[in-house]
Amino acid sequence: MGRRTGFLGVALALWLFAGAAHAADPAATRVSAFCKGLIEAVRQSAGQGAQARVRRLEPLVEEAFNMKVMAQFAVGPPWTAMTAAEQANVTAALTRYGAGRFADEFDRFSGQTCVVDPLVQTRGPDTLVKSKILQPGQEPAALNFRLRDYGGAPKIVDVYYNGVSQLATERADFAGVLRTGGAAALASRLNELTAKLR
User: What's the pLDDT at 23?
Assistant: First the structure.
């Protein structure tokens, strides 16, 4: 009986260790931290308007996302023709715009929670982390993240809102502006869209 109890104890310890290992995956940890910060920023800025949420969310986006990589993909081939200053301006505008998109999607705090699946999926050089936004009285909303490792630190490089890639959408949206006005027009347009949020 004692041996059986000891065996069960070891098995339980191994099971808990395996669960902790999954929960400690760096990509899942990154997403958990961002989601927690997102919900908290929305809660703390309740009643202050969208621009207050943008200000709170922008540093979170800067920390969790590789915005330069995202900007390069969203812009596409025209990126290589831009100067370093133009690339920096577009990246900064896209960072504010990214914070603005979250500020617009999460326009008020109503008891939302974010549940991150600790079981991540590997897709080539990237890691897919799935999460759900739970809100009382509503269907769960899928919010999934694609991350890539940069020197041991995973960064988010795409977001999927209910299965739709943010980067793919942006690339299609930006093409016309880039074609007619280049980098300056794109940065100006992104800043304008963010500033319009109320």
Answer: 47
